[in-house]
Specification:
The protein is α+β, with helices and mostly antiparallel strands. The chain has 3 domains: 33 residues; 305 residues, Bira Bifunctional Protein, Domain 2 (BirA Bifunctional Protein, domain 2); 94 residues, Anticodon-binding domain (Rossmann fold), CATH 3.40.50. Helices cover 46% and strands 17% of the residues. It is built from 19 helices and 16 strands. The strands form 3 sheets. The protein has an 8-stranded mixed β-sheet with strand order 1-5-6-11-10-9-7-8. A 5-stranded mixed β-sheet has the order 13-12-14-15-16. Strands 2-4-3 form a 3-stranded antiparallel β-sheet. α8 packs across α14, α9 packs antiparallel against α14 and α10 packs antiparallel against α11. The N terminus is likely disordered.
Length: 488
């Protein structure tokens, strides 16, 4: 064969091989597993940190007498729709009916491509948008089993078909605490205290912003647009994010007159302390019975706060609206003072929520802690470095089958003393077992080899200092209580 022809054929084969390898690589890459946008996996370290947040929040909830419940991940759409406003309804994740879900849909309906109408025919259920509406449904459904006032907390994930961005996810956890069946403003005060206690324990500096939905209704009447209360609250709730000019443009787009918008400006820009703002508001809203009632409620609530031991900053914010339609009284929102993104906690009073499920005259108030945003704040401020998140406290070295029974005895004894301990499962080299302990940040190693077994001894090694302590197995209880637990 001609050498040049041979080289040409060899080169062609090489090119074909490279192309095949590249296409194969692309095919493999296309099969790489992934998760939906706006959702996340959590590593072991992340889960330990998240559990620290959940445990801190849960302990404070219980301290104030709240009890846990859980509700299903999915609810009937009839339960969810219409409770969050038009924008909230658009963010509901709908679940397709099982079986032949298109059997009741005509070709014309499919051709018209009207999502809202189609959705009502092919979806009967949706993932919960928050924990408050399912809670109201729960209260109505279980009214005969509940002791009122009913104080409950709930820590579960919720889902929103939102655009994922920093601090905003499609799947995230909420930690809700509510009291229902009482009109007392002491409940609002207690929620503010809970907020203060939780963020004090988490070492996050916060500002609690408070407003009242009745005041917002009074403002809408004052500017001559009482029927536009929803449009007004949805728009001004975005003030911090988009600025006053964009809010005014949105209000114009919603049909508010220029006169009404001009009249709104001095209200949104009121300055001074809480007393000054409320005094000025009383003058502006003198003709609004609803507005004056809201001002009275704010005075009572701030009176409780001013005479309390609350350490965080609390302020009256008349631009705070929280765009959820079910709020009727106090509105609460919490922001980190050191990290600039959205609220990390929020809620308010709702008087009519159970009424839509056939149970009128039951008022409730609650707040929701955003666990994911709290995590991001702690992470950004490097506060997790101060938290001991090691899962295992002691690792028992595995020397082989002969020493296993002795190691298991030590294992059981340590666990009975409340120490988190594990036995390395394989009798590999000591260096590998020590590397495992180091990688997992396990603070202590327990060594029990042939010599220790003969003397009924054990050796504890402090991984941080390198110091070793030898003792009788019978003295383990005393060592754990006097040395290990004091350090851990």
């Amino acid at each position: 064969m001609d050498f040049r022809l041979y080289r040409l054929l060899t080169f062609d084969l090489y090119v074909y091989f490279c192309l095949f390898t590249f296409v194969f690589y692309l095919d493999i890459m296309s099969l790489k597993p992934s998760i939906p946008k706006g959702t996340r996996d959590f590593s072991t370290d992340e889960m330990l940190r998240r559990e620290y947040i959940f445990d801190t929040i849960k302990n404070v909830f219980r301290l104030y007498g709240y009890q846990p419940i859980e509700t299903p991940a999915m609810e009937n759409l009839s339960t969810l729709l219409g409770k969050y406003g038009e924008e909230g309804d658009k963010l509901l994740f709908r679940i397709l009916n099982s079986g032949d879900f298109l059997s009741s849909v005509s070709d014309d309906e499919l051709g018209n491509r009207e999502p809202a109408k189609l959705s009502s025919k092919i979806c009967e259920k949706g993932l919960r948008y928050d924990l408050t509406v399912p809670f109201a449904r729960y209260v109505v459904q279980h009214r005969d089993e509940i002791i009122f006032p009913f104080k409950r907390y709930q820590i579960q994930p919720v889902w929103r078909a939102d655009r994922p961005q920093k601090g905003r996810y499609r799947e995230f956890f909420q930690c809700d605490v509510d009291v229902i069946g009482s009109d007392s403003l002491l409940n609002e005060y207690e929620l503010v205290k809970i907020v203060d206690d939780i963020f004090k324990r988490l070492n996050i500096a916060t500002v609690i912003k408070i407003n009242n939905r009745k005041v917002l209704s009074g403002i809408a009447a004052f500017i001559g647009e009482p029927d536009k209360i929803t449009d007004i609250t949805v728009a001004i709730d975005k003030l911090d994010k988009i600025g006053i000019e964009a809010v005014n443009a949105e209000l114009i787009a919603k049909g508010l007159s220029q006169k009404a918008i001009s009249k709104l400006q001095p209200v949104l820009q009121l300055t001074g302390n809480t007393e000054i703002k409320l005094t000025r508001l009383e003058q502006l809203l003198a003709q609004s019975e609803t507005g004056l009632k809201g001002i009275s409620e704010l005075k009572t609530l701030f009176g409780y706060i001013e005479n309390s031991s609350i350490s965080c900053e609390v302020e009256l914010d008349l631009t705070l609206a929280r765009g959820l339609n079910y709020y009727t009284g106090a509105i609460i929102e919490v922001k980190s003072k050191d990290v600039s993104f959205g609220s990390i906690c929020g809620g308010g009073r709702y008087d009519n929520l159970t009424g839509v499920f056939g149970m009128d005259g039951v008022s409730g108030v609650g707040i929701s802690f955003g666990a994911d945003r709290i995590y991001d704040v702690l992470n950004q401020l490097n506060l997790f470095s101060e938290i001991k998140v090691s899962s295992t406290e002691v690792l028992i070295v595995n020397f082989g089958e002969k020493e296993t029974q002795y190691a298991l005895k030590s294992l059981d004894l340590l666990r009975s003393l409340g120490v988190r301990v594990e036995l390395y499962p394989d009798a590999v080299k000591l260096k590998k077992q020590m590397s495992y302990a180091d990688a997992k940040k396990i603070p202590y190693i327990l060594i029990a080899g042939e010599d220790e077994i003969m003397k009924n001894n054990i050796i504890f090694k402090n991984m941080s200092s390198g110091e070793q302590s030898s003792m009788l197995l019978a003295d383990l209880d005393s060592f754990v209580n006097n040395v290990i637990k004091k350090i851990l």
